[in-house]
Amino acid sequence: MRYSRREFGKLAISSLPVAAAVAANPARLFAATKPNSKFNGVQIGVISYSYRQMPQHGVLDDLKYMVENGINACELETIQEEWAGAPKRPMFQRPAAAPRPVGPRPEMTEYNEALTKWRTTMPISKYEELRKIYADAGVWIYAFKAGLTMRMPDAEFDYVFNAAKACGANQVTMEMPDGQPELTKRIGEFGAKHKMMIGYHAHLQALPTTWDEACAQSPYNGINLDLGHYTAAGNKDQLEFVKKHHERITSMHLKDRKSKEHGEANTPWGEGDTPLKEALQLMKKEGYKFPATIEVEYPIPADSDSVKEVGKCLAYAKAALA
């Protein structure tokens, strides 16, 4: 007997042995149907951050959501290290009236030291295991997001690139370290050592020249372009920027935001000022091979959830690429 996804999901919840099997290997849940989100040559993926508001948000939970959405490629942020056993980042709470503390928090210093120790001693084979779990479900991990700083030892830099490769990724993504050319230079050197691109992600500080220095430092320094942030930052040359820099764009985050003049807000796709449809059509026309990554940041409607909203974004992208 064949079960629909909905029927099988109910069965898994009601049966402890089945639930345990799914937890051990989530690929079994939808093994009959492999996801496919590559449309007319354009690879659409999703960043795991998009599922952060789901009741269960972990590397195996998000894989099930991706398969349910029909998405076959992804960028992983944070959850892959949590799954592999990294120390938990401390949560901070302070009264609203309390002054912002000056200098590094003791808890963060301890956490950073623990994270470095873990990263430089953990077995990288753990990520090979994760790669197989995702591959068996039909999902490619193309980007591994992790932060790097100058205080970190070389072994921690090696860890990030080795972990990304073990996951099957072709790029590391991280936030753009503004005003730290010595850091992007060092990262670029490690990119060359490991023959892997680094895509730097910018927020409202993004300008057409934001990535110039880093890209000049190393052919392995690249651009993780967030089209929504770039629009909200006041830039009007989105498509021209993509055309000019497509060879250095490692992946492109897709979200809709209002322009600076209209308030910069995140919106459901099609309601903002970001040229999402035009950018996707440009990728199709020019045959650009970098993935386009769904990132849901607008408020989730009360009658919906993150999985449903990712599905709506995917449908928008598919229609734009038809």
Summarize the structure.
It is built from 13 helices and 11 strands. It is α/β, with parallel strands linked by helices.
Structure notes:
With 322 residues, the chain is α/β, with parallel strands linked by helices. The protein contains 13 helices and eleven strands. It has helices spanning 5-14, 16-24, 59-69, 79-84, 106-119, 125-136, 154-167, 181-194, 212-217, 227-232, 238-245, 276-286, 306-320, and strands spanning 38-39, 42-47, 73-77, 140-145, 171-175, 197-201, 221-226, 249-254, 256-257, 266-267, 292-294. The strands form two sheets. Strands 2-3-4-5-6-7-8-11 form an eight-stranded parallel β-barrel, surrounded by five helices. It has a two-stranded antiparallel ribbon with strand order 9-10. Helix 1 crosses helix 2.
CATH superfamily assignment?
Divalent-metal-dependent TIM barrel enzymes
- Total helices: the number is 13
Give the CATH architecture: Alpha-Beta Barrel
Ranges with pLDDT <50 over ≥5 residues? 1-24
The CATH topology comes to TIM Barrel
Give the strand order of the largest sheet, numbering strands 1, 2, ... along the chain: 2-3-4-5-6-7-8-11
| Biggest sheet character | 8 strands, parallel, barrel
Order of helices and strands: HHEEHEHHHEHEHEHEHHEEEHEH
Our estimate of the beta-strand percent is 5-15%
Give the N-to-C terminal Cα separation: 35 Å
Please state the structural category: alpha/beta
- Taken together, the total number of domains comes to 1
What best-fitting shape do the alpha-carbon axes yield? globular
Average residue-wise pLDDT = 89
